[in-house]
Give the backbone structure.
Amino acid sequence: MSLNGKVALVTGGSRGIGRAISLELAKQGAQVIINYARNYKEARATADDIRTLGVSCLPLRAHLGEPARVKQMFQRVEKEFGRLDILVNNAASGVQRSALDLETKHWDWTLDINTRAPWLCAKEAASMMPRGGRIINITSLGSHLVLHNYLAVGVSKAGLEALTRYLAVELASLGIAVNAVAGGVVDTDALRHFPNREEMIGDSLKRTPAGRLVTPEDMARVVTFLCSDAAEMIRGQVIVVDGGATLR
């Protein structure tokens, strides 16, 4: 499953699931660009860890809710590498409120980052993939399961999965395969913002036949597989990584 010589961009690639994906791609030989929004210290630490694997890494700061920043980020990638082979749309944000408490600014913020930004990134990436490539979108089970105070994020992830299917068809003629990976409950920093975190973890452990929570590394290995030649004929799919939790 070698990715030697490939150039990969991972949005939100400095921590959590994004960090695990960045490291796994690097282990397979890819040069990695990690996008981050705020914390340079985390981005630098991840970049240093990637470089110890013998590949290059470029941290790029860009707020993906701003289209101009998205374009600037890809211009920098093109300047530094001349092309792109892999795009992983991992960056996500959101406001946890019920439908009646949610405000339009919360809705706009969430969908701008979780749905619009992956579309904009895919447009820019496609123009830099003359020999084809891979686009992987990171989604969640809240795209089709109703979770507490998850309305805006759930809708944004449902949109991201629809985007995955449309892009898979429209970009196929360019040799670009597009898929998504949905994770079950993954205990990352993002989960700590959920007021019912402990309840979510406990419930997931009870319902998961595999007997443990999904780890960022579990997600990263599936993403890396989808980036490989072995996954050439997987198109427009949402691969669920939840240890079987949604089977019961």
